[in-house]
Amino acid sequence: MRVVIVGGVAGGMSAATRLRRLDADAEIIVLEKSGHVSYANCGLPYFVGGIIEDEESLFLQTPESLHARFRLDVRVSTEAVRIIPASKTVEILDLTSGESSEISYDKLILSPGASPVVPPIPGIERGLTLRTVEDVERIVARVKDRPQNAVVIGGGFIGLEVAENLVHKGISTTVVEALPQVLAPLDPEMATLVADALTDHGVKVFLGNAVQSVTADSVKLASGEELPSDLVILAIGVRPDIALAKGANLKIGERDGIEVNEFNQTSNPDIYAVGDAAQKRDSIDGSATLVPLANLANRHGRVVADHIAGRAVRTVPTIGTAIVKVFDLTIATTGWNEKRLVAQKRGFHAIHTHPASHAGYYPGAKPMSLKLLFDSSTGEILGAQGIGTEGVDKRIDVIATAMRGGILAPELADLELAYAPPFGSAKDPVNMLGYIAENRLSGLTKTAQWNELEEYRNRGFVIVDVRTAREFARGAIPDSINIPIDELRERISELTSHDLVVTCEVGMRGHSSALLLEELGFNVLNLDGGYQTWSHSPATNSVPVLI
Q1: Catalytic pick from 22, 40, 42, 52?
Q2: Whole domain around residue 133: which residue ranges?
Q3: What's the predicted TM-score (pTM) here?
Q4: In Å, how far are 253, 311, 465, 546 from 266, measured between CA atoms?
Q5: Which pLDDT value is given to residue 543?
Q6: Which residues, at least 6 apart from 534, have a Cβ–Cβ distance to it below 8 Å?
Q7: Could you confirm whether 504 is annotated as catalytic?
C-alpha cells in the first residue's frame, strides 16, 4: 500500500509516524512545499524575539531522521500541484529543479494547513506573514536591520505574540485591529484586560480601525491616522488552504474548509484531510467549525492513520481550547464565548470571579479573572475564559476536561483538586465557579451583568456598594451609595428604594448582602463579578477606540 501525504508539520507528520508504527510495510511518501517538514510552528514568534535563540531547536525532525527511524520518504521543496482522483495520482513539482512528475497513491492524506489572510490593500505586499520557517527567517532578517517602528496588523493570537516579541527586541510596536477588541475569542470585558497589558508594556493599540493602505514608510488607517512603520507584519488571520481539494472536486463545507466525516475522509473515501484545512464538528451544537490548533491536527493525523490501518477509531468533536501569552499575562479560552451564545439565541448564565492563584495567606498569590458560561436550564458548561499571571492554564484545562466529560457547572464544586497553600486554595477557583453556578441555577441569587447596569438604573434600581469606605474612595460606580456590609443592618433606613443592585469588589460580599437584603424585603440583584468586572468593561476602558 502506498500512502501519499501532502503537507507535514503537525497533522501530516502525526499521520505518517503513526501509520508506520501500525504498518511496517506501507510505502509512505510525504510531500512538503517548504524546506522543512517537521518544526515547531507555534514557536516561530519567540524566535523573532530571541526567546528561542537557536533556530535548530525549532526543528523536530528532518527528512534524514524521519527516514532513519521510520523509513519515510520525505520530499521537501516539493509542491503537490494537482490531484487526479480518477487515476489516483498527484502531479508534483520539484521546486529546486523545476521538474514535474506524477506519483500514484492508494490512500492520499491532505494536510496543507491554512494560509495567511492578505487583503487587497494598496501596498500590502510590503507586509510579512508568519507561517513557515522561511517566513520567520525573513522577519528575523528585517529585525536584524534594527527597524525603529513596527506595525502589526491584526490583534489575534499570532499578532499579539509577534507584537510582544518585537517589543523584546526594542522595536516601537503598534497593533491595529479592525474589530473593537483584541483576541476575538474573548468577550469584551475580558479582552480589555489584554489591551491594557499591551499599553502598559508600551504597545500602541488601535481598535475598531481598518488599514486603508501601506506606503513605503507608514501604515494609513481609515480614521486618517498615519503610523510610521519600518516593518509591517500581517497577522489578520488564516483561511483553510483548499486549492488542491477544490481542484479535485472534493466537497468544501459551509465554513470553506474541506468537509470530512468522523474518520476525516473527504467526499472521496480514498482521500483524507487533516489539520487546519479540514472542517471540525463543534462539541456544543455539532455545527461545522474551523479550529486551527496544533493539538487537533495531531489528533486528526492519528485518527486517519488508525482508520487506514483498520483499527477502531474514537472520534471526538472539538471544544476549541486555546491559550496565549501576552507579556506577563496568560489568556486561555475553551468552548463558546458570550457573543456566540447570544448570536445563536442560546439561553445561558454568565458568571465572573477574580480569585487568587493560590491561598492568599501564602506569599506570591496572583490575581486571576475567570468567566464561566453555562446553559440556564441544564447547567451544561458552554465555555470559559481566564486571564492572569499565574494558574490560569490549569483552571481552563480543568474546565475543558469537565466539558469533555459532561460534568455540569454546579458539579465543578464537587471536583477534588490538588490543594496545598503554594498551589491553590481549599476551595479552588474552579470549585468556586461551581458554587456560584449552583446558586444561580437554583434561583438562590439573582445577578446583573456589567452591561445591564444602566438598564437597571433606568428602571429605578439603586446601586449599593457594600465595600469599605476606603475601598469606595479608591474608585466606585458613578451614583452608587456606599453602605459597608457590616453596617447594613444598622443603616437599612437609608435605602429608600425597594429595587437594589448591590456590588462589592468581586461579588462575594455582594452575594451575602443580597441574601440579607432579600430577607429584609428588598428586590435585590448582585452585580456579577463586582466592581472589578465593571471597571474592566469597555465602558470604562482607557484604550483608544478609533472608528
Answers
A1: 42
A2: 124-236
A3: 0.93
A4: 10, 18, 58, 44
A5: 35
A6: 450, 453, 477, 503, 527, 540
A7: no
